[in-house]
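Sequence design from tokenized structure. All designs in this work follow the same two-part layout: the structure record, then the generated sequence. An example of the structure record is given first.
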């Protein structure tokens, strides 16, 4: 009887933890977020590292969990990426440069078709100084585009599914900025 109770408790724990929030590098990623009327669930989360710096913690939110990166990038479904700055080495200039480099990788060097939209997104990071603890949300709303928020305040909206594909390709594309982060975002 005691073994059955322990087994039942263990099964319940696994069930509840699988849909729970996730704390990584001191940052708590909620189990779900609201995007307008849509509820998005945490697909996975991880840390963007470069050399020995832990630059930011990121979380990927989807309507339904999915481990297929290409499907996520190409879908015309609500999608969000939250990143929280966790390193004092990040500032407006180097984050802006990193985003531009990410688009170059995602688009295999051909950023010209989306350059104006990339510039608008980059202005989100350049408009105010960035400090440790700042949270950005890049939220794709079908029919509206990417809504870029800083600390909960809407900064820009960039239209187009093509832009969404290029943006999410930064983390989930064939040549992501951080392969370990891609794996973590896919919940693998």
């Amino acid at each position: 009887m005691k073994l059955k109770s322990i087994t039942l408790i263990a099964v319940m724990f696994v069930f509840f933890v699988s849909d729970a929030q996730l704390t990584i590098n001191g940052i708590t990623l909620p189990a779900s977020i609201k995007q307008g009327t849509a509820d998005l669930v945490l697909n996975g989360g991880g840390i963007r590292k470069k050399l020995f710096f832990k630059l930011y913690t990121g979380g990927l939110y989807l309507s339904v969990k999915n481990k297929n990166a290409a499907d996520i990038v190409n879908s015309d479904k609500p999608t969000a990426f939250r990143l929280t700055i966790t390193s004092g080495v990040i500032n407006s200039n180097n984050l802006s440069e990193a985003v531009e480099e990410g688009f170059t990788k995602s688009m295999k060097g051909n950023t010209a078709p989306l350059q104006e939209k990339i510039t608008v997104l980059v202005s989100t990071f350049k408009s105010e100084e960035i400090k440790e603890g700042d949270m950005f949300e890049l939220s794709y709303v079908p029919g509206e585009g990417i809504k870029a928020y800083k600390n909960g305040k809407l900064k820009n909206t960039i239209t187009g599914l093509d832009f969404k594909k290029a943006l999410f390709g930064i983390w989930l594309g064939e040549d992501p900025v951080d392969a370990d982060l891609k794996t973590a975002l896919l919940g693998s």
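Residues 2-18 form the longest helix (17 residues). We note this feature because it recurs in several other targets discussed in the main text.
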